[in-house]
Amino acid sequence: MEKVALTTDxxxxxxxxxHERMSRRKNLAGLCAATVVCILxxxxxxxxxxxxxxxxxxxxxxxxxNQRILNSHxxxxxxxxxxxxxxxxxxxxxxxxxxxxxxISIEDVLNYQRALIAASFDDxxxxxxxxxxxxxxxxxxxxxxxxxTTWRSGSTFLGDILNALPGNxxxxxxxxxxxxxxxxxxxxDSVALHNLxxxxxxxxxxxxxxxxxxxxxNYLFSHNTRLxxxxxxxxxxxxxxxxxxxFCQLFPLQSMKVVRLRAALVAPLLEDExxxxxVVLLIRDPRGSLQSRRHRVWCPDHPDCYDPxxxxxxxxxxxxxxxxxxERFPKRFRxxxxxxxxLDPYGKTKEILDFYGLPxxxxxxxxxxxxxxxxxxGVSSTYRDSKTAPFHWTKELTFDYVKHVQDSCVxxxxxxxxxxxxxxxxxxxxxxxLLEYRFS
Length: 440
Ligand SMILES: *[C@@H]1O[C@H](CO)[C@@H](O)[C@H](O)[C@H]1NC(C)=O
Ligand SMILES: *[C@@H]1O[C@H](CO)[C@@H](O)[C@H](O)[C@H]1NC(C)=O
Ligand SMILES: *[C@@H]1O[C@H](CO)[C@@H](O)[C@H](O)[C@H]1NC(C)=O
Known about the structure:
Layout: H1 2-52, H2 65-70, H3 72-78, H4 106-120, E1 143-148, H5 155-163, E2 168-172, H6 188-200, H7 208-216, H8 219-222, H9 225-233, H10 241-248, E3 253-258, H11 267-271, E4 277-283, H12 286-293, H13 303-306, H14 308-328, E5 333-337, H15 338-343, H16 345-356, H17 362-371, H18 393-396, H19 399-408, H20 410-416, H21 424-428
Parallel strand pairs: 1-3, 1-4, 2-3, 4-5
Helix pairs in contact: 4-10, 14-20
The structure holds 2-acetamido-2-deoxy-beta-D-glucopyranose (3 copies).
One 2-acetamido-2-deoxy-beta-D-glucopyranose is lined by residues 178, 187-188, 191.
């Protein structure tokens, strides 16, 4: 009996030890797995940050660093194209509780948005401006702000600065459906200008190509955060001209950025007094934009995007157009280099807003506070320093490639004030690519 008991005891003890060993092994395996997952996540988030900074990031404004951390999953969960990138809004959206979804009408959504704009719009910061003198639906004249640029030149940054203003409606890249091409003249310029004019006037009729593209590519609308917020709730209305037109007309500020239309082609828009549009041409060092484009799968197969001679010929044409346009429309056309904006984000943003007739609103300041400095509340790794971001190419391109670009860009670089690098060593030694420059 005792013996049996002893044996049982021993065997129990043995099995317990075996069990313990096994569970320790399991723990170890679990720990290893967890470590691997952590490393992968860390790696992914770093890659993610490195590759997405620049002209494609989307980060909603948040009030405090803590809130940013609390909400950080929202960015990572939603930033990729196709996801609900506009899920977090610049404005505060209380739920529409009173109306049942199935009975909600376009009119209900418009009323709701109209109330939101009235509550968030800051009349006082617009000298002449009462809201109704600016909103198209009341026969007002909206402030129309257009950014003309090309791929990977800082336009998402500048576009989001404008979109931080309460009451802004953001026509994000209206020529997306043209694919990776530049529009320089006939035959496609007439369709392109048709689309731009229609959108600037909030007219979504005869825009089927554009709307069809949007139905299958969320990013056409998701950067337009105030629209996207309602699209997420009421997908049944999102691509309907009879919703989009009146919705757009609620907004006193209308901004647009275009990367596929060369500068000379905006002349007819500037000539049209009734449009009242102001245009900023945003320029970037071709070595910087080409370096950034290397990381985009959609770019290298297209010469308009990736061939230095083609890219720089467009830059040179833009220079000649800019001289003409700034003579003819001194109050409605101006030029800015991305590098100058990045080195002095507050000063240049004030200048640009002033040019557009827009206030340097606290929301804009809050946006710059969170998007231009490296060291904020423990999330520094996801926030790049705007002062170094435009110059990464100096460390990442080989001198051979830099020389190849420079040789293809002689007049464009001279005219836009970019300095040649003369050796690999010079590039690595805090190379300053900017020449003293004033566009006149
Ligand atoms: C642009 O023009 C070309 C003809 O040169 C045509 O093949 C192409 O379909 C046009 N693209 C658009 C989007 O209209
Ligand atoms: C409202 O109803 C439509 C179908 O009519 C549906 O697709 C949509 O997801 C609903 N929206 C919300 C917020 O429940
Ligand atoms: C830059 O280098 C090119 C040759 O690669 C030369 O033709 C051009 O004059 C140089 N530009 C300046 C401003 O020195």
